[in-house]
Amino acid sequence: MRTVQNKWLDSAVKTYLDAYGSTTAPLVYEVGSRDGRDGVELAQRISDGQIDWEKIVLFECNPDQQQVIRKSYPQATLITEAISDKKGTTDFMVIHGDQNMVGSSTMNTKRNDTWIKETTTIKVPSRRLDDVIKSLGHDNTDIDVMKIDIEGYTYEALLSLGKYLRNARIFHLETEPEGCARKYTNLDVSLFMQENGYICTALENEWGDSIQDQVWIRQGERNV
After folding, report:
1. Would you state the pLDDT for residue 1?
2. Which of 23, 58, 64, 102 could lock onto 33 through a cystine, CB 3.0 to 4.6 A?
3. 181 and 155 in contact (C-beta within 8 Å)?
């Protein structure tokens, strides 16, 4: 049974299907998962009907949300460390409230948006994506779609892929423009992706002008 289709995933799904068609048991990474729904939906929408749940890799370092994912998708692979360009530990601000607020929990503990009312700061372990890829045995495997939405740390997550950056066929990246970005802007991310052999297929502002979603496909792929 497929999930309700969310329009913010349409461009990544279309880019994938136009280039590759549907795929058996797709490998999907959702970095900054919150509840697991986007990662599962991406896998379902690009699959030919066959899903390998272990190949849906959901990243969430908020302990409360980890329990949500475990309850909803117990067969998926759950990575509980924060993703960073450095291995170690980091402060993590858990934002309390409704589901949208929870989704904005962040390593940026200085974030002070006016809508943030109640928070808890905790220590969480941090890990690089290249370490995850190697530990899961995906170092010689194409990742069909990698979605990264980690509240201003997309650039560092991309850096953490190291030599495995081009393992991903499609990227769906949340970025922020100048004036909203914590450090690296949407332009920094764009230049990084272009320099590493990716072509942009969509730039969208589904959540307003403060956030830009970018979809990228690996250069040299079918129909690209």
Report:
1. 44
2. 58
3. no
